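Justification of computing resources. Each target in the renewal requires a structure prediction run like the one illustrated here; the chain below, 608 residues long, is used simply to show the kind of job we budget for.
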Amino acid sequence: MPGLAGIIGIDGARKGASLLQPMISCMMHEPFYTSGRYVNEEIGLQLGWVSLKEAFSAEMPVWNEKKDVAVIFCGEDFTDPDEIAGLKNRAHEWGSAQAGYLVHLYEEQGARFLEKLNGRFSGVIVDLRQRRVSLFNDRFGFNRIYYHENPEGLFFSSEAKSLLKVLPELRRVDLKSLAETFSCGCVLQNRTLFAGISQLPGGSVWSRTPGGDIQKGFYFRPGAWIDQEPLGVDEYYGHLKETWTRILPRYLRARTKIGISLTGGKDSRMIMAWARTPPGTLPCYTFGGVYRDSVDVKIARQVAKVCRQPHQVISVGQDYLREFPDLAARTVYISDGAMDVSGSTDLYVNKIARGIAPLRLTGNYGQEILRSAVAFKAGPWPSQVLDEEFARLIGEARQTYGAERGRHPLAFVAFKQVPWHHYSRLIVELSQVTLRSPFLDNDLVALAFRVPRELAENVGLQLRLIAAGNPVISKIGTDRALLYESVPWMTKLEHLYQEFIFKAEYAYDYGMPQWLAKADHWFEPFHLERLFLGRHKFYHFRVWYRDQLSAYVKDILLDSRTRARPYLRGPLLEKMVREHTRGIGNHTSEIHRILTSELMHRRLIEGI
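Resulting structure tokens:
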């Protein structure tokens, strides 16, 4: 994934330089990446970066006119254009680099300029005037920075594998963190899967001058948004409409081609309703499966047609299944084990999406921010497959999750769910495309904290906003048959039907009870999956693990190395795998997790 890696404070330039190259090399996942280095022995900095060639941050570093201040930036910034224009009016100059203005914001405002940045980013400030190096990230901590401190200095990277590569003593799995991934799907509390490696908290700026210690500070704290007073209902809608129409153009400006991943839901439709792009200039695509056109595909096709934009389907089928072993291993490697093997679908579809447009606009995080939707929870696990001590750690994970949820749903979503849970899929996507979502814009998220309590989970405001932007597409029902102007009874019946088929598909796939899996086994020759699957989802791992991927699952999970992992009970693991691959049990989620942990051991611990 595009990012940064480096060392602050190491003694001995030669040693630092010898460590930097392997840290960067293991982040070069694709031929369309570019990279660079900056080394300054006097201030104790070894720094490298990797970027997509067309990205906002491709031309690094950016220097001021005197060449005594530089910013090395990763990610994107959507600062108000008037702020940038003001710099030019005050005689600041920079070349063709899109991020060139950042160093001049720092010149004028010091580290306080970070408060104005708006996006998903991380970076380093080199101030030769004060001989200071500063490491920073965005206020959510979404552009993840892994770090480890030892007597030689602060080692940091956008990818944990960079640290594992040069610090072999860190190649140990933290079982507490691993248990949290089994229960919650992610590691909690800014810890990581690797003992001795942590995550930089969101809104951080850490600085050092030669001979000094790292000064660990924050330029933003969540309370600045959480402590705002709620607005009235009409007042909130007025602010929401004004904010949305003002910020959206920021995300439609680019030097490269933009495409949008369109679904049948409200969030991507909000973008389409207000995207004033000429016909034929915003390619739309939807991820689909092989059984039928899903509800997402059908609705997205209609929305694109109304907006006079091209639309195509990126299908996940036999080619994906043939590539699954490689895609799964790459997903785990790229994400440092944060994304489970099901994320291989994201790697596959985003690689194809890059061929349509290297910049992907998405409605991701819309319902999470505007409706405080919690997307993950701590779940139980079949303890018979797990070592007793590891099963106890899973119980602790559920307690930790409960304590972290707190009393403010949006605070949990924005400052914990986003950097802990949503990050895992994001990093896989970012390995192929530049991903933008207007729903994480600072102005919009800050406003969302002022939502009236009675509207906190209401979908009506989004539907109203869509209708205000494009009345025609507001008349197309969503994937759950929601309409701004509903038709009595008909809309309700359609909604109930869509809810039913959504739950039926889940019940036939991931959620199939064990007793029903045994019954389904007897009807396997009739391929009942053709009746249930593909209406809402484009991936179907229960059936795939049973059929097309069964040989791979058995090859990995029944291997002696896997069975010998100290947190697993080998004989019971074998029983579970054979039940699923014979079609007499449903262990999809367990296979996801154990496959992922095993590939993590092989690629990131033993094979780095």
